[in-house]
Amino acid sequence: MSSTFPKEFLFATATSAYQVEGAWNEDGKGEHMWDRTAHTKPDMIKNHHNGDVACDFYHLYKEDVKLIKDAGFDVYRFSISWARILPNGEITSINQKGVDYYHNLIDELLKNNIQPLVTMYHWDLPQKFQDIGGWANPLIVDYMEDYADLLFQLYGAKVKWWITINEPYRISQGYDCIHFAPALKLPSSIKYIVLHNCLRAHGRISRLYNEKYRFQQNGKLSISVDCEYYEGETESKEDVDAANRFTQFQLDMLTHPIYSKEGGYPKIVRKVLDEISRKEGRKRSKLPEFTKDEIESLKGSNDFFAFNHYTTLSCTPKFSQNSNQQTRPESTFEDDINATVLFDPEFFSKTVLWVKVVPRGLREMLKYIKNTCNNPPVFITESGYCDGGDLNDKERVLYYTEYLKEVLNAMNNYQCNVIGYTAWSFMDNFEWFCGYEMKFGIVHVDFNDEKRKRTPKLSYNFFKQLTKNRTIPMDR
Questions:
Q1: Torsion angle of the four alpha carbons 354, 358, 363, 367, in this order, in degrees rounded to the nearest 10
Q2: Percent of the chain at pLDDT above 90?
Q3: What pLDDT is stored for residue 417 in this prediction?
Q4: Considering 382, 395, 406, 431, which one is annotated as catalytic?
Q5: What phi and psi values does residue 31 have, to the nearest 5 degrees?
Q6: Which of 186, 359, 399, 426 has the greatest number of CB atoms lying within 10 Å of its CB?
Q7: What is the pLDDT of residue 49?
Q8: Is 382 a known active-site residue?
Q9: 21, 108, 167, 364: the active-site residue
Q10: What is the model's pLDDT at position 325?
Q11: How far apart are CA 15 and CA 54, in angstroms?
Q12: CA-to-CA distance for 69 and 204, rounded, in angstroms?
């Protein structure tokens, strides 16, 4: 099998604003949801860490852009902090220093021949909006459209790759579990409202771009979705069906409205949730309906498929066939789909339970996307491995080596249309409720040093060799 990528294939690395920027209250930035969570619920975060300083990327971005350039990356994916641009979230409160900061970052990237891939929303909702329900409030769609409009006005002439929203599925988990901000424990019906509003916002932004900006700016737009490869714990029909349901409810629920001819949610998802809603005595389905206009705005709203993938997980049914699992008003997502995730100890991972090295899972997901979404151009916008922060990070190099082999396998042997791969993350950073305990970076950051000293790891040199020769370094 060839180990060489086409010359047009894009190699990228990535971070998000709250995880790296710091400067949480400098230069007019407003408070956002993660600021509030970290400051008021410190016990929820490992070692009471927060992103107040993080990697201090806000002040050190020029040094970091140089490292990105020296590694040979074509693209740098980063997010804009909504509250840094608009301190209270609304377009009536434009913060010029925040606007200038992202102009300077984008200019620095372009000066070094690095394409910016900008994520508009990566989990840091202005606190004002969370106070009124956040993504569970349908008004958020209007506010998000206004924010996107401003970003296109400000940066659209220079930015040609856009992601509207990062991982709606994980955003929705913040409303039904305590592992994601705002860390609410609400009935699963709220989760579906959140997912629905994320899709509505993406559709509106896509239409806005098409009608107002595309002709002049000629950029590409997507919404990033994440999905692990789910397989049955055993080969039994019950386990395989549970794994398929998890994929349908995590991935297809978000992609079917965009890539199918008819639009809207998948029939199986609609059927299951409508039936559960009826059994629960609801007057309407817990899965909202799109209007005809929303269906049309979502169809074809991606110019590329932004896909985040890390690992493979196994599934089994949560309830036996005879149990009456769908009568509780506080049902969870796993209750609704009758599937639960298991963690197979056979797969190798040194540091964290859920990131296992199972390269074939990425190949299988790329094949699945090809078959269910009409083989769209796929940009893998996150993929990576975490450890304890070793500079000689051989396990991470192994992860990237084997996963990239499977990307080539999918391209060459299954004709999957993959256009890019993004290493998550460029540097060690704040990993949400895990604080700084988990390290995904290819660059080490010393969080005990006021200057946040950066040190490239073995994996950084792996990518430096890969981007130079477009060939996976096989001597690793």
A1: -50
A2: 87
A3: 98
A4: 382
A5: -80, 140
A6: 426
A7: 96
A8: yes
A9: 167
A10: 53
A11: 12
A12: 35
167 is an active site residue: yes
Entry pTM: 0.95
Strand 443-445 relative to strand 454-456: parallel, antiparallel, unpaired?
Answer: antiparallel
CA distance 85 to 155: 12
Inter-residue contact 32 to 25 (CB < 8 Å) = no
Assigned token pair, 463: 């990518």
* Peptide linkage before 3 cis (omega within 30 of 0): no
The pLDDT of residue 261: 96
The pLDDT tens digits of the residues spanning 295-339 come to 999 999 999 999 999 999 999 998 866 555 545 556 788 889 999
Query: Which residue's entry shows tokens 């490239």?
Result: 456
Nearest Cα to 252, choosing from 195, 315, 188?
195
Cβ-proximal residues to 223 (8 Å cutoff; 6+ apart), any chain: 163, 164, 165, 168, 198, 199, 202, 254, 258, 301, 302, 306
Query: Which 3-state string (H, E, C) describes the chain?
Result: CCCECCCCCEEEEECCHHHHCCCCCCCCCCCEHHHHHHHHCHHHCHHHCCCCCCCCHHHHHHHHHHHHHHCCCCEEEEECCHHHHCCCCCHHHCCHHHHHHHHHHHHHHHHCCCEEEEEEECCCCEHHHHCCCHHHCCCHHHHHHHHHHHHHHHHCCCCCEEEEEECHHHHHHCCECCCCCCCCECCHHHHHHHHHHHHHHHHHHHHHHHHHCHHHHCCEEEEEEECCEEEECCCCHHHHHHHHHHHHHHHHHHHHHHHCCCCCCCHHHHHHHHHHHHHCCCCCCCCCCCCHHHHHHHCCCCCCEEEECCCEEEEECCCCCCCCCCCCCCCCHHHHHCCEEECCCCCCCCCCCCCCCCCHHHHHHHHHHHHHCCCCCEEEEECCCCECCCCCCHHHHHHHHHHHHHHHHHHHHHCCCEEEEEEECCECCCCHHHCCCCECCCEEECCCCCCCCEEECHHHHHHHHHHHHCECCCCC
The tokens for 365 are 């997901």
Average pLDDT over the chain reads 94
Pairing of strands 115-121, 161-166: parallel
Question: Could you give phi then psi for residue 276, rounded to 5 degrees?
Answer: -60, -40
Maximal C-alpha separation, the chain: 63
Instruction: Phi first, then psi: give them for residue 19, nearest 5 degrees.
Output: -75, -20
Q: Which tokens in the block code for residue 328?
A: 């509780």
